[in-house]
C-alpha cells in the first residue's frame, strides 16, 4: 500500500487511533481517508470520549466526509458499518478500515479488503511509523476488545521485528 491509497473508514479504527494518539498514521499509511456521514455522526455521539470530541473540532485535511448515494440495505449492520461498506462500493475503493467481525465479513463478501485497528498498528510498526508494542499497550488501556490470543499474536510479531 502506497501513501496514495484511498480508504474508507468505519468509526472504531478512527476512535481508537485518536484515543492512543496515533490517528495521523492513517494519513501516512493510506493518504486519503473517506468516511460516510453516519461515521461522523457516530463519532459525535454524546458519550464519545473527550479526545475524539476534541479531534472532531478540527478535522485533518486528509479526511473527507461524504454522503452515500445509495445505501446497500442488504448489509444489515449498524448505520456506520453499512454506510462505510456502501461508500467503498460506490467509490470503488477496495480497502475499508473496520474492526467488527460481522462488518468485516460483510465487506469481504462484497469483494472489499477489511483492515482493522490491529492490522493498522502492525503495518505502521512494520513501516517504522510508530512503536507497535507501545501502541498496542496503549490500545489495551482503552475499551478496545479483541481475543487475547489475537492480541498476543500481534504483539509477538511486533516484538520479533525488534529482535
Which key features would you list for this structure?
163 residues, alpha/beta, 5 strands, globular
How would you summarize the topology of this molecule?
Blueprint: E1 6-9, H1 11-19, H2 24-30, E2 32-36, H3 37-43, H4 50-56, E3 63-66, H5 79-91, E4 95-97, H6 101-109, E5 113-115, H7 117-126, H8 132-140, H9 148-162
Parallel strand pairs: 1-2, 1-4, 2-3, 4-5
Helix pairs in contact: 3-5, 7-8, 7-9
Structure description:
The protein is 53% helix and 12% strand. The radius of gyration is 15 Å and the shape is globular. It has 163 residues and is of the alpha/beta class. The chain starts with 5 loop residues before the first strand and ends with a helix. The chain has a five-stranded parallel β-sheet with strand order 3-2-1-4-5.
With helices defined by DSSP (H or I, 4 residues minimum), what is the helix count?
9
**Low confidence ranges:** none
Share of helix, binned? 40-55%
How are the strands ordered across the major sheet? 3-2-1-4-5
* Termini gap: 25 Å
Largest sheet: 5 strands, parallel
The backbone outline, from C-alpha atoms, is: globular
Please outline what is shown here.
Helix content is 53%, strand content 12%. The protein contains 9 helices and 5 strands, in the order βααβααβαβαβααα.
Amino acid at each position: 500500500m502506497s501513501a496514495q491509497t484511498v480508504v474508507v473508514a468505519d468509526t472504531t479504527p478512527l476512535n481508537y487511533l485518536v484515543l492512543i494518539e496515533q490517528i495521523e498514521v492513517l494519513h501516512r499509511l493510506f493518504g486519503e481517508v473517506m468516511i460516510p456521514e453516519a461515521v461522523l455522526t457516530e463519532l459525535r455521539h454524546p458519550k464519545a470520549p473527550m479526545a475524539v470530541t476534541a479531534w472532531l473540532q478540527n478535522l485533518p485535511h486528509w479526511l473527507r466526509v461524504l454522503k452515500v448515494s445509495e445505501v446497500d440495505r442488504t448489509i444489515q449492520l449498524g448505520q456506520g458499518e453499512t454506510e462505510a461498506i456502501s461508500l467503498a462500493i460506490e467509490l470503488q475503493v477496495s480497502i475499508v478500515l473496520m474492526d467488527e467481525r460481522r462488518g468485516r465479513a460483510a465487506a469481504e463478501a462484497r469483494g472489499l479488503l477489511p483492515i482493522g485497528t490491529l492490522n493498522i498498528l502492525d503495518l505502521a510498526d512494520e513501516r517504522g511509523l510508530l512503536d507497535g508494542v507501545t501502541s498496542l499497550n496503549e490500545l489495551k488501556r482503552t475499551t478496545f476488545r479483541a481475543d487475547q490470543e489475537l492480541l498476543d499474536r500481534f504483539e509477538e510479531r511486533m516484538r520479533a521485528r525488534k529482535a
